[in-house]
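Amino acids appear as letters; backbone shape is given numerically. Here is one record.
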Amino acid sequence: MAAPVITSTSLNKTVYPPGETIVASIATTGTESAQMELVVSLRNKATGETSLPARVGFALHAPRVGMSTAPGKPTEKMLTTYPRVRYMRDFGKDTDRDKLPELPAHGSGKMAAPADCAVHVSWKDNVEQLTGWLDALTRPVYLTWYHEPMGDVAPATYRVTAARVSKIVAAHRNRQLVLGHGPIVTRYWLDEGRGNPTDWWYPGATHYGIDCYSRDTATYWGPDRMFGVAFGKVRAALPGVRLLVPEYGLTRTVSDTTGAGRATAIREHVTWLRQQPDVDAVAYWNNWAEYEISSYPLESKAWRDSQMA
């Protein structure tokens, strides 16, 4: 079913059952844009959780649409080209040469992104670093200890170690700035690899991240294959879990010489993701030649339009 278009008129006149989540296609022109922007800002204020005035009678679900690329100049350029990046990955930085990135510095690099951009921070070094890092936190973030642990960390070890994130966050005075935390795996591992999502699920986790890529150069996959199978496995194993797509990327097909096909696929994928009431964010992986879209007008516009919606 297509998402209903909610305008200021229907917002004022339509009453939905309390607690019902409405997946909305938000009007993006004229005064409607400003009015609905206020609604979305209410939803994301402070914690990023759905929060509208009780008298309205429903919750508006508006997934964050963002983008990630390499740190430094590439990110600076990205934020200029795509001014409405509302979700971004930061993988930390290895400063002690043990090949395990630490948590990123506050107030610089990606952690200096615009205030309405939720940075999804991951690190692989000592989980106990988190306490001190949270002391200086001033912006909303998502957290993941050890991005894509498959093959690097034994599941039992991962669950025990990552559970410390739950305890540290719960006990910290800045816990309200943590929008959520949980593991990140790949679509391939869940789908073709037949992975078990519970391998990485730990007590207190709130979100499950799934990196979704297609290198198929013959055809563009529909949403069911691109996301649906992997999402379905996580939903079946962990009912009620919130979902994130921290990385998403498409390779152009051989026959798509103009990029029109990839642009159409991007629009269809984001539309589908907006219709999923348990998906909180998606970021395009604007990195590596096979996925990069900034050099291609049609694909670039498709993603920019998706961020502005």
In short: The two ends are 19 Å apart (CA to CA). The first strand starts at residue 5 and ends at 6. Residues 1-9, 11-59 have pLDDT under 50 and may be disordered. The CA atoms of residues 30 and 36 lie 10 Å apart.
